[in-house]
């Protein structure tokens, strides 16, 4: 099943990630798990760039689900341009979307995926409302 990446989304972060030899599978393609690692790395790097932390006694985002659509192969050597987008803030959630392209062809999307982020009180392990600063950041107006 292919999940479509929405047209309406807000770009919030970009970073490059080098493809390592060890990221390859036996067929000399980027291993499927590596795409999820790249999406996670970009999402967490964006989160930390906001000054947010993962204090186990605080609050922050956790991922409820994740998916990836594969369009073109990525292989070693190379560097991946990851772009993180956000959309659809709810009471306790927002959507994250990540596109992956080779840096030398930034407009050719090789893979794209998404994840639903839920804002939680880590100590209580319970969803809580999005803070105003997060809602503003992930909304169209922010």
Q: In a few lines, what is going on in this structure?
A:
The protein is α+β, with helices and mostly antiparallel strands. It has one domain (10-138): Thiol Ester Dehydrase, Chain A, CATH 3.10.129. The chain has helices spanning 32-49, 132-138; strands at residues 10-18, 59-70, 79-87, 93-102, 109-121, 126-127.
Keyphrases for this structure?
single chain; globular; 2 helices; 142 residues; 6 strands; alpha+beta; six-stranded antiparallel sheet; Thiol Ester Dehydrase, Chain A
The overall pLDDT, averaged over residues, is 93
Q: Provide the gyration radius in Å.
A: 16 Å
Q: Helical segment tally?
A: 2
Let me know the CATH homologous superfamily: Hotdog Thioesterase
Question: What letter string, H or E per element, gives the SSE order?
Answer: EHEEEEEH
What is the 3D shape?
globular
The percentage of residues in β strands lies in 35-45%
Q: Might you state the CATH topology name?
A: Thiol Ester Dehydrase, Chain A
What fraction, in percent, of the residue positions are helical? 10-25%
What's the total count of β strands?
6
Which class of secondary structure composition applies to the elements?
alpha+beta
Overall tally of structural domains: 1
**Text of the CATH class:** Alpha Beta
Distance between the termini: 32 Å
Which architecture would the CATH scheme give at its second level?
Roll
Quaternary arrangement of the chains shown?
single chain
Biggest sheet details = 6 strands, antiparallel
Query: Which stretches are low in confidence, meaning pLDDT under 50 for 5 or more residues running?
Result: none
